[in-house]
Write a structure and sequence with these properties.
Elements (H helix, E strand, L loop, with lengths): L2 H10 L6 H10 L3 H14 L4 H13 L3 H12 L7 H12 L3 H14 L3 H13 L3 H18 L2 H5 L2 H7 L7 H15 L1 H14 L4 H13 L3 H11 L7 H10 L3 H15 L4
Helix pairs in contact: 2-3, 3-4, 4-5, 4-6, 5-6, 6-7, 6-8, 7-8, 8-9, 12-13, 12-14, 13-14, 14-15, 15-16, 16-17
């Protein structure tokens, strides 16, 4: 075969995607096993690149392979990065693997990065499980004080940078998306949260807190008819949802249902014997 036809044939062959780009795309698409395989291959080629160890750790953590994730996080943390979100995720991974005593010093570094209520609570849980009760009590008290000072809204705003950083690796994690969407609803308003909460419910229709958060956001956004089925599904587990459900019924002309639901809400407030 002559050279020109060979060149034409080569031009018709699909270009192979760069492994690093393929791994990043797999993470974005929630294909964590593929991302793990690709990052392991890249590490074999460039064994001393810390960023690859971190990406592998995140892929393993997102795939709920916590024991393997802990090994990869440990390799990355040997580079002594400054306190940051990675310390929180690494600490959470150790807690998931039932290693609270190993998690505590990692979470202490996360606290240096951001002494948010979430970080403080996870650290207190680690102390408690490790039977370091004085530190646990003091840290729980610090978390409670933080929650009171922030009055609910600001405490979730503190978690916003972490959620944003981790979202590409957790696009198919319904619980993560619920937490992120709830954060957006509280800090940036209902409209900002809808797409994230809708995705969470799409992935896990039985995730009751996500349905409740979505119902609330839909009411705030004026989409009362859309809100009703979510609030009906979630209100048996959370009586506070009866009030926005009553509003949604009233806005859609279902006056009797609105009155009945408001009465149920009032009954829920009564002291239980």
């Amino acid at each position: 075969m002559k050279l020109l036809p060979l060149l034409l044939l080569a031009a018709l062959l699909p270009a192979q995607e760069d492994p690093a780009a393929a791994a990043a795309r797999a993470m974005r698409e929630g294909r964590f096993a593929d991302a793990e395989r690709l990052y392991r291959g890249l590490i074999q080629q460039v064994p001393n690149e810390p960023r690859l160890q971190l990406n592998l750790a995140l892929a393993l953590h997102s795939g709920k392979k916590y024991a393997d994730a802990n090994l990869a996080f440990a390799q990355f943390l040997k580079t002594n990065p400054p306190p940051g979100p990675v310390h929180l995720v690494a600490g959470l991974s150790l807690l998931k693997a039932h290693r609270p005593c190993d998690a505590a010093p990692i979470l202490e570094k996360a606290k240096r990065w951001q002494a948010s209520e979430q970080v403080l609570t996870e650290l207190a849980d680690a102390y408690s499980a490790c039977k370091r009760y004085p530190q646990a009590g003091a840290t729980y008290a610090e978390a409670a004080a933080k929650a009171t000072a922030n009055a609910g809204r600001l405490k979730r705003a503190a978690a916003r940078p972490l959620f944003t950083a981790l979202r590409p690796t957790s696009s198919n994690d319904a619980e993560f998306l619920y937490e992120f969407g709830d954060t957006l609803a509280r800090t940036e308003g209902a409209e900002a949260s809808l797409a994230v909460l809708e995705r969470s419910v799409e992935l896990a229709p039985s995730l009751t807190p996500a349905r409740g958060a979505l119902g609330r956001a839909l009411v705030e956004a004026g989409r009362h008819a859309d809100a009703i089925p979510h609030l009906v599904a979630a209100s048996p587990a959370d009586a506070t949802l009866l009030l926005p459900l009553s509003r949604a019924y009233k806005a859609t002309g279902r006056v009797e249902d609105a009155a009945r639901t408001e009465q149920q809400y009032r009954i829920s407030l009564a002291p239980q014997n």
